[in-house]
Amino acid sequence: MIKSDVLVVGGGNAGFAAALAAAERGRKVVLLEKAEEASSGGNSFYTAGATRISHNGLEELIDFVEPDERHAVSEVPAYAAHEYLADLRKVSDGRNDPELSGVLVNESNPTLRWLQGMGLKYRLMYERQAYRTEEGGYLFWGGLHVGNVGGGKGLMADHRAAAKRLGVEVIYGCAATGLILEENRVCGVRYRTSSGEGEFRAESVILASGGFEAAPGLRRQYLGEGWQNAKVRGTPGNTGEMIVAALDAGAAKGGDWSSCHSVAWDAWHPENESNLELTNQLTRGGYPLGIVVNNEGKRFVDEGADYRNYTYARYGRDILAQPGSAAFQIFDASSRPMLRTEEYDMPGVSVVTAPTLAELAEKAGISVTGLEETVRDFNESISEGPAFNPNVKDGRRADTQPPKSNWARSISTGPFYAFPVTCGITFTFGGLKTDTWGRVLTESAEPIGGLYACGEALGGLFSGNYPGGSGLAAGAVFGRRAGCVA
Ligand SMILES: Cc1cc2nc3c(=O)[nH]c(=O)nc-3n(C[C@H](O)[C@H](O)[C@H](O)COP(=O)(O)OP(=O)(O)OC[C@H]3O[C@@H](n4cnc5c(N)ncnc54)[C@H](O)[C@@H]3O)c2cc1C
Asked: Of 55, 66, 203, 483, which one has the fewest beta carbons inside 10 Å?
């Protein structure tokens, strides 16, 4: 039997942040990861590394991000903690836990600087979060500006190196299967490896084992009928058994168990689940520049309701609700060049192209009359008002049903493009109830001795929607906090 001071279950961003914080305090730390090393890193590996922190603009960030010659011609608007808090409230319609949210927005910046001190590297995300200005510079938008060098792959490689330096023992291919309780205190976990089963004992157990998005049965049970059909964007390992084990041990549920983060996702690619090579390239985030229709040719969301960062995580649900859980993002020759190369020129990208809308619809399996009518109506409803400007919410509207509130441009110049999308599930918002230090609480708000949670396993921050880049920030902040007290 192995013994440690701190046992971390799950080797994603939150688990490694927890492990680093505990090891920094001189605790003996063991981290168990279900996946083999080659496929490890959890959902964190699949990310773009985009991390939402509050900051005072480029002047403050300049000593934090890696040097880049474009800095001299870049504008990075400050993003204050109160703006971050307002965004969390706005996208969740006020259902976010105020205490957890307060900690997240205040500690996101110092926590990333702490991780940078541990050897993680950050940069400004030019390719995702800025468009060129008329003067030839770059203007950042959407409150999400920094990310890891090398994306999620770089993030997890840096984490592993930092953990090695601090003497954290990482055991791959080892799945925790249950909690060991003695006298109402958690004192270890049961585990399974390819060679057998056993027990690990520890003073503190930190659950950083993600949500339950990769368990179709739990998805159907908590998110509702149809969710079992969503495509899993990230790791197949987040199947929720340790959340269930904590509930069985008396933990309370935290946050919104009935909603999740889900996006527009390549529908036709043959390997569109848990794809370790393409990772987040299967996302289709360019819809604010075009329109989205179902296979009847009808629009069903406001593609320009807000910056992509504030809408993409809820539109997966709307796509799931369409006939066949399918939709198409439609662009014409004028908008196509503005789509991000990483996603829309991905190797093996699913796309239909045609010189006319009728041929496009025919080839894609969309109703021809439906698409033609929708595009005609959409084009005729575009306001004569402000000029198109993707860097700001330009107020260039299409006044139709549903409206397009910004960035409406006529779809009229061939060739036309249809990108088939379905619902890709990212992570579940429901998790365990904790205090702000990750101590897992019972229904009567008593801490369960020895048990902590962080990352996606902790519920309460998000509901219905999510501001892009908050998942990695939350994992780092609450992982570090749990590691500071466990
Ligand atoms: C395609 C994609 C792109 C994304 N892009 C971004 C982005 O750019 N920015 C952002 O902020 N967020 C992004 N997210 C969300 C982000 O990945 C998560 O919010 C964050 O990574 C969660 O970190 P975590 O450590 O809690 O979970 P994970 O990184 O998922 O780690 C959990 C780990 O626990 C392991 N595990 C599960 N059960 C057990 C068990 N029983 N025993 C042992 N180990 C177990 C899993 O194998 C996994 O490795 C993205 C997600 C996906 C899927």
From this structure: 66
The rounded Å distance from CA 213 to ligand 1 centre is 10
Ligand 1 atom nearest the C-alpha of 457 is: 26
Q: 23 and 167 in contact (C-beta within 8 Å)?
A: yes
Please list the rounded mean pLDDT of every run of 10 residues in the chain (486 residues): 89 98 98 98 98 97 96 96 98 97 98 98 94 92 96 98 98 98 96 97 98 98 96 98 98 98 98 97 98 98 96 96 97 97 97 98 98 98 91 95 97 98 98 98 98 98 96 98 98
Residue list, ligand 1 pocket, CB within 6 Å: 9-15, 32-35, 40, 42-44, 46-51, 175-176, 208-210, 233-235, 237-238, 241-242, 279-280, 426-427, 455-456, 469-472, 475
Q: Are 196 and 189 in contact (CB under 8 A)?
A: no
Nearest ligand 1 atom, CA 14? 25
Structural tokens at position 238: 């987040």
CATH 3.50.50.60 domain residues, the chain: 2-211+429-485
CA of 235: how far to CAs of 42, 243, 342, in Å? 5, 16, 20
Burial (CB < 10 A; 0-12, 13-18, 19+), residue 7, is: buried
d(CA 90, CA 94) in angstroms, rounded, equals 6
Among the four given CATH numbers 2.60.120.10, 3.40.50.1820, 3.90.700.10, 3.40.50.2000, the one describing domain 261-424: 3.90.700.10
Q: How far apart are CA 194 and CA 197, in angstroms?
A: 8
Neighbours of 314 (CB within 10 A): 19
Buried b (16+ CB within 10 A) or exposed e, 129-142: bbeeeeeeebbbbb
For a pocket test of ligand 1, which of 32, 44, 172 has the largest count of ligand atoms closer than 8 A to its C-beta? Answer: 44
Query: May I ask the CATH class of domain 2-211+429-485?
Result: alpha beta
Q: What number of other Cβ atoms are within 10 A of residue 36's Cβ?
A: 11
Element (DSSP H or E) covering residue 152: helix 151-165
Element (H, E) at 479: helix 470-485
- Atom from ligand 1 closest to the CA of residue 44: 21
- Locate the ligand 1 atom nearest the alpha carbon of residue 473 and give its number: 11
Residue with structure tokens 């939150």? 14
Site to probe by mutation for ligand 1, drawn from 8, 34, 43 as the one with most ligand atoms within 8 Å of Cβ, is 43
Mutate to test the pocket of ligand 1, among 13, 47, 120, 235 (most ligand atoms within 8 A of CB): 47
